[in-house]
Amino acid sequence: MPTLNATHDPRLTSWVASANGGQTDFPIQNLPFAVFRRLGSSEAWRGGVAIGDQIVDMAAAVAAGVFSGAAEAPARAAAQSTLNDLMQMGPQPSSDLRQALSKTLQTGSAQEIALRACLVPQAEAEYRVPARIGDYTDFYTSVHHATNIGKQFRPDNPLLPNYKWVPIGYHGRSSSIGVSGQQFKRP
Questions:
Q1: Mean pLDDT value of segment 8-19
Q2: 145 has catalytic annotation
Q3: Mean local confidence (pLDDT), 34-39
Q4: Where does 67-141 have alpha helices with state H?
Q5: How far apart, in whole angstroms, are the C-alpha atoms of residue 106 and residue 11?
Q6: Alpha carbons 100 and 94: distance in angstroms, whole number
Q7: Is the pLDDT of residue 1 over 60?
């Protein structure tokens, strides 16, 4: 579990005006990563971090030399077309990057001018799944779902007696994972 640190201080404010005032899902205390590009463009997909109604373009921020020291390597990983390399670095590099992001986005930051040029409005962005997902295991968590699946294989005994005591896992298809709001055809 992540440790709360100074980046979670409720008194922090940002020079990104839309990140202040409690009307946003992305105040300076909540800096989620994503993979995005400008809406309708053929730009390369790249990492970004939400702040207010904006996205910090991590590729642009790295190119501008905003990050140094312990935050530089994770910033480069966060700028890529997937976040796999950042996640593989482990919790400390991610924490170092979060602290650096928080400092650069805080009111009065010396990095404001450099980072302001790296902002992209969220309304002008499109997103994709932020990681290469090779495999995953899913679990039946609903008696109704387990019964419906069981009917396909065992019509006379769709819900095995062990269902209520033993978790039932199955191999999931990574191709079925999509971003929020994505439309797909149900069978």
A1: 97
A2: yes
A3: 97
A4: 72-78, 84-89, 91-105, 112-116
A5: 11
A6: 10
A7: no
Ordered by where they begin, the domains of the chain are 6-128 (2.30.30.230), 136-176 (no CATH)
Residue 49, beta-bridge partner list: 33, 56
Taking only the tens place, the pLDDT of each residue in 91-141 is 999 999 999 999 999 999 999 999 999 999 999 999 999 998 877 777 777
Residue 166: both structure tokens together? 């033993």
Classified as helix, coil or strand, 169 is strand
Catalytic site residue from 8, 144, 145, 171 = 145
Task: Name the token pair of 1.
Answer: 């579990």
The token duo for 5 is: 């640190």
In the chain, the N- to C-terminal Cα span, in Å, equals 38
Could you give the C-alpha distances from 66 to 60, 75, 99, 100, 150, in angstroms and in order?
9, 9, 13, 9, 55
pLDDT of 82 > 80? The answer is yes
Whole-number Å distance between alpha carbons of 53 and 122:
6
What pLDDT does residue 182 have? 75
